[in-house]
Amino acid sequence: MGNLKENGYEKYDMMHSLHYDGIEEDYSEILNYFENLPEDDYAPGLNRYRRYSRALVLPSSGGIEWLPTVKRNGTEYAAYFQGKFNPEHSGSYREFHSIDENIRNNRLLREIIMANYHETFWKEEEKIMPIHVGVHFVKLLVSQDAEKAVSSPDCLHQDGEPFTFAHLVKRENVKGGTNAIGIPAARGSRPEDVSREDIHEIFELENPLESYGVYDSKVSHYVSPVEKGDGPEDTGVRSIILIDYQQTVVADMDE
């Protein structure tokens, strides 16, 4: 937690730190699930695939409770609102295909959620109420040499939630997908367009469950577009789990 609080970001190796009997099987279940993610409805034709679900962490017990989904035409969705922080979808609600129940109950996913939670820090009054958790499964996949798959937003940004963690599931035959951590004032720009002094670090996640977390108020962050690599595989793929944490917000009755 020290680096996350002091520097605004920290890197982790969850495969090592969470190791338990059966972790390989649980990881394989998640890896296989990513193979059939639906296309991101808000990025048609942009080679991005996504599922999303919301949960609560109960600080008093350490339990995880998944929130209900919305059914539309027989398909389950989870709603997401990012306020002004994503310039590509500012002020709009989005609904993503929800994560299936068996994966929500995957032990490894639950262990990751709680490990991330224990890295976060809150005021005592904020821990009286549940902590809200958003879990994004995102895959960038390209099959043609000229294609790119782009994360949203395609610039240094802040998320609006106090904490966000990224966990690599798979990286195969890709170029790009490079992470950058910058100062808050760099948001809205790409790393190459700001002073090098405004960038804390540039790095890549390469191995399963290599991860990083950001303390949103102290840094901006970015991942570059993905292109197909030079390997023999027919496609290039970068799959990642993004998990954000925010406190329960109590309405101001004076407004």
Protein topology:
Layout: H1 2-7, E1 9-13, H2 14-17, H3 23-33, E2 48-58, E3 63-66, E4 70-72, E5 75-81, E6 93-97, H4 101-104, H5 107-119, E7 131-142, E8 163-172, E9 174-176, E10 179-182, E11 199-203, E12 210-215, E13 220-223, E14 226-228, E15 236-247
Antiparallel strand pairs: 1-12, 2-3, 2-7, 4-5, 5-6, 7-15, 8-12, 8-15, 9-14, 10-11, 10-13
Textual characterization of the structure:
This protein is an alpha+beta fold and 255 residues long. It contains five helices and 15 strands. It has a seven-stranded antiparallel β-sheet with strand order 1-12-8-15-7-2-3. The radius of gyration is 18 Å and the shape is globular. The chain starts with a helix and ends in an 8-residue tail after the last strand.
Features:
single chain; 255 residues; alpha+beta; 5 helices
Short structural description:
15% of the residues lie in helices and 37% in strands. It is an alpha+beta fold.
Please summarize the sheet with the most strands: 7 strands, antiparallel
* Strand line-up of the largest beta sheet: 1-12-8-15-7-2-3
Helical percentage: 10-25%
Structure classification = alpha+beta
Proportion of strand residues: 35-45%
**What is the total tally of β strands?**
15
